[in-house]
Amino acid sequence: MNIASGCPNNMPHNQVSTPVILITGSNGQVGFELQRSFSPLGRLVALDRNACDLSDPDMLRRVVREHRPDVIVNPAAYTAVDRAESEPDLAHAINGAAPGILAEEARALGSLLIHYSTDYVFSGDKSTPYTETDVVGPRSVYGKSKLAGEQAVAAVGGNALVLRTSWVAGAHGSNFAKTMLRLARERETFNVVADQFGAPTTAALIADVTAQIVGRFWLHGDRAGFASGLYHLAASGETSWHLYAREVLSYAAGRGVALKADAERVLPIPAHEYPLPAPRPSSSRLDTTRLNSTFGIHLPDWKQGIHHLLDEILS
């Protein structure tokens, strides 16, 4: 558990002068970045799984009632997509039930809940980017559990944002970009799926956008007019896993990183040649028009974020 310094939270909730911001999953990719982006906004209570286990409803309620936060940010999730196929109950407890509990506690306090979801709630069959009003159709246990979490938050109501994102990568934790760098150092060639499309989105971008929304529109704005609801948050542009891998290796090589496999040695294959326990959507492209029009936030091209990420990883 990591609790940043600040004013004690021993006053009634509506009299707290310094906002209290509770962040779950503090050791995750997004949770790690949220601590940086939210630190200027209030007193952080950043909790890891040991201090706030989302599979334990009693602990979850106890933690929220102890700290009485003005804002709850929930990046914690069961993210082992393939393992979820054999652990559906645990995946649904963490991804499906826990967000509803947080929504209930937030509503009781009059607080704001920020919850993150995923492109995996879609089947992936659409030929154009998915909007928030498109029909969902998850094909994996992970996707179904995340959809259940969205629905649980919506059923409670209150002030809540559900932010769907895609292909998350952060400097802290494991992700596709780091895996590609490792493989390129170890092998002279390897294959990557080329017929699944989306937008790599950095944990830093997700955290910065979230903090901007919360700071401007909740902590310093008109709370009564806060635009709760479902939004897509992903970097602009699109790519395939194959082209994403080649971009990572090209950029790393340009920085002088020694690799056995350069970008040209990453070979494209169809998804059916790389079978996994959990099916992935062929299209993970998310339309972010609603986020832009509601909050006036411009989302940069995915390459820009990945380059910044690689600069941090390789420095």
Can you describe what's shown?
By secondary structure, the protein is α/β, with parallel strands linked by helices. The strands form four sheets. The chain has a seven-stranded mixed sheet with strand order 1-3-2-4-5-6-11, with helices on both faces. Helix 2 runs parallel beside helix 3, helix 3 packs parallel to helix 4 and helix 7 crosses helix 9. The longest helix is centred in the N-terminal third of the chain and has 22 residues. 46% of the residues are buried.
Key phrases:
alpha/beta, two-stranded parallel ribbon, 38% helix, disordered N terminus
How is this fold's topology laid out?
Elements: E1 2-3, E2 20-23, H1 29-38, E3 43-46, H2 57-67, E4 71-74, H3 88-109, E5 112-118, H4 141-156, E6 160-165, E7 168-169, H5 176-186, E8 190-193, E9 197-198, E10 201-202, H6 203-219, E11 229-232, E12 239-240, H7 241-254, E13 266-269, H8 289-295, H9 302-314
Parallel strand pairs: 2-3, 2-4, 4-5, 5-6, 6-11, 7-10, 8-13
Antiparallel strand pairs: 1-3, 9-12
Question: Could you write a compact summary of the structure shown?
Answer:
The protein is α/β, with parallel strands linked by helices. The protein has helices at 29-38, 57-67, 88-109, 141-156, 176-186, 203-219, 241-254, 289-295, 302-314, and strands at 2-3, 20-23, 43-46, 71-74, 112-118, 160-165, 168-169, 190-193, 197-198, 201-202, 229-232, 239-240, 266-269. The strands form four sheets. A seven-stranded mixed beta sheet has the order 1-3-2-4-5-6-11, sandwiched between helices. It has a two-stranded parallel ribbon with strand order 7-10. A two-stranded parallel sheet has the order 8-13.
